[in-house]
Amino acid sequence: MVTPRANWKGYIKFGEVAFPVALYTAASSSERIAFNTLNRKTGNRVRREFVDSETGDTVEREAQVKGFEIEDGRYVVLEPEEVAAAIPNSDKTLKVEAFIPCDEVDDVYFDKPYYLAPDKMGSDAYKLLRDGMKQAKVAAVARTVLFRRLRTVLIRPHGKGLIGSTLNYDYEVRSSQKAFEEMPDLKIEGEMLELAKHIINTKKGEFDPKQFDDRYEEAVAELVKAKMEGRALPKKKAPPASKPSDLLQALRESAGMSTPAKGKRTAANANAGKGRQKANRAAASAARSTGGAHQRRAG
């Protein structure tokens, strides 16, 4: 088994305690299917080039420079050494600034997860921090320079170790108020709400990532395999017909409460009405017969 390569090495420091850690990517897209762009006529790979937007001439890498647009067509040029000088100095230390309740950070601020493993010496202090946070049910907020940027990292106990998630800055997170500003103020209650709660209760389960497959990757892999073997390409099935848009009816069907069709319901109601009429006539006839018998006995 190949030992993964650390993305970053440094220290975690809380109070006056510091210990070395190695940071590893927790989620990676390297296993996804990747495509190359080819020339349809020759089958050769296409090479990407940077060209001058005005002259159309190719610009080699050594002639390229960063620039910030201040207005249409006007840029502030930033030399590589100027950009490098602007990057904060890194002391390779994740300084814990505060311990907070684990559920205090909104998920929308989470960026990327990384495993934080003990590096060489310092495993005792590592376990001390992990177990202390577990018992106190807290996470640590720390800051350091990661990948040329000053980043805020949320450190939490994770299994036998620690996981550090980089956090988005407040200005990077869009306002939820703007996203939901057109949401109508409706109050759902009665049968609809009870049916929704019933469906939710019947669908309760536990999260198992192994149950969720990447159907796109599987479909593309099957497509590539079919072309390599000269087989007929897989055909896409037609989507199922859409269901009625009536929300209450859809909830009833989801809850297994089938309702009769309109025509059948009308016929059933008519038959029920006829039955009630017959019963009423029979009851009235019986009452008249009983009344006559009483009168004869009384005379």
Automatic annotation (TrEMBL):
CDD domains to which the protein is assigned, alphabetical: KU_like
Protein species of origin: Rhizobium gallicum bv. gallicum R602sp
InterPro entries, A to Z: DNA_bd_Ku70/Ku80, Prok_Ku, SPOC-like_C_dom_sf
Region span, Disordered: 230-299
Compositional bias segments (type: Low complexity): 280-293
Signal sequence region: none
Physiological role: With LigD forms a non-homologous end joining (NHEJ) DNA repair enzyme, which repairs dsDNA breaks with reduced fidelity. Binds linear dsDNA with 5'- and 3'- overhangs but not closed circular dsDNA nor ssDNA. Recruits and stimulates the ligase activity of LigD.
Similarity comment: family membership: Belongs to the prokaryotic Ku family.
PANTHER family, A to Z: NON-HOMOLOGOUS END JOINING PROTEIN KU
GO terms (BP aspect): DNA recombination; double-strand break repair via nonhomologous end joining
Protein name per the record: Non-homologous end joining protein Ku
